[in-house]
Design a protein that fits this description.
By secondary structure, this protein is an alpha/beta fold. Helices cover about 25% and strands about 20% of the residues. It has eight helices and 13 strands. A nine-stranded mixed sheet has the order 6-5-4-3-2-1-9-10-11, with helices on one face. It is globular and about 50 Å long. The two termini are about 25 Å apart.
């Protein structure tokens, strides 16, 4: 039976955080825009319900999805579908957590990001403890600016040792990290070095566009978030016919949600069932 990994990103762009490096900081969608986003999300949920394939889903919204009740309801519903192997989302974890008591635990997980300029470490760690109490699987991390490595280490020391703490590399400045910096960060995130580079990907075999693909709010399908070519539409095409083994057409791939699907890196083995929520198999509880 086919197994698909789907990254869904609708038009939602509003966020309750104001991070200086993010173009969506403190943006607000109108009520009409939120209603439109909710309808598009529900259309996607209905499509998933009608499929027979084994499906895993990662929501990658531009804004913050989990402060919206319709996202909470959609993820809860999807988690209970027998053919949905996993449903996850990238989130700042500013939402309440009590609603997660209704999800199916073995098919629900979170990719959480700590924003040191927006919330205290103490408050964020308390949210992580709430997830632990609910037995929710999650990963946690943030952008590893060199001046914040000590915060990364404090985060690692403050949460459940069985939870994976990842670090995203700051790559806008070439040779930003010294080897000593990398070794220090690797003591927290042993997979950090993968994220420090733009992997050579042109012509290389990748699961994107074959077993993994993205869907936008219109239902358009692309190989990944970093390739603009539309392969088809889940509402107007039999999408199975559009998915074939492909080689990457980009020169490099530097984002985790992209390079994790490159066959030569063998990260499917490293992450196994936790690939979409960024939890290596050695950290699964």
């Amino acid at each position: 039976m086919n197994h698909w990994s789907i990254l869904y990103r609708g038009p939602l762009s509003s966020c309750n955080y104001g991070c200086s490096y993010c173009p969506f900081a403190k943006t607000k969608n109108t009520r009409a825009e939120l209603a439109d986003d909710a309808q598009r999300l529900q259309n996607f949920v209905q499509w998933v319900k009608g499929r027979s394939e084994q499906i895993s889903i990662l929501f990658t919204p531009w804004g913050e999805g989990l402060i919206r009740k319709y996202y909470q309801e959609a993820m809860t519903e999807l988690s209970h579908l027998p053919h949905v192997k996993k449903v996850s989302i990238q989130t700042n974890l500013s939402c309440t957590t009590n609603w997660m008591d209704a999800v199916r635990r073995d098919s629900f997980a979170l990719w959480t990001t700590f924003h040191p300029t927006q919330i205290s470490l103490e408050k964020f760690v308390n949210k992580c403890k709430q997830l632990d109490a609910l037995n929710i699987q999650y990963s946690v991390g943030f952008v590893a600016f060199k001046e914040d490595i000590d915060i990364l280490e404090r985060l690692r020391a403050s949460i459940n040792p069985n939870r994976y703490v990842w670090a995203n590399a700051y790559k806008r400045i070439p040779n930003y990290y010294t080897e000593e910096d990398i070794l220090r960060i690797e003591r927290t995130d042993p997979l950090f070095r993968y994220n420090t580079m733009h992997h050579q990907s042109l012509g290389k075999s990748c699961q994107a566009g074959c077993t993994s693909f993205t869907v936008d709010g219109n239902g358009d399908v692309r190989s990944c978030h970093f390739i603009d070519t539309v392969l088809g539409n889940i509402y107007t095409h039999e999408i199975r016919d559009c998915l074939t083994p492909k080689s990457c057409i980009n020169a490099t791939c530097g984002c985790h949600i992209g390079y994790v699907h490159l066959d030569e890196l063998n990260l499917y083995h490293t992450y196994a069932d936790g690939i979409l929520e960024r939890i290596p198999s050695t950290y699964r509880e």
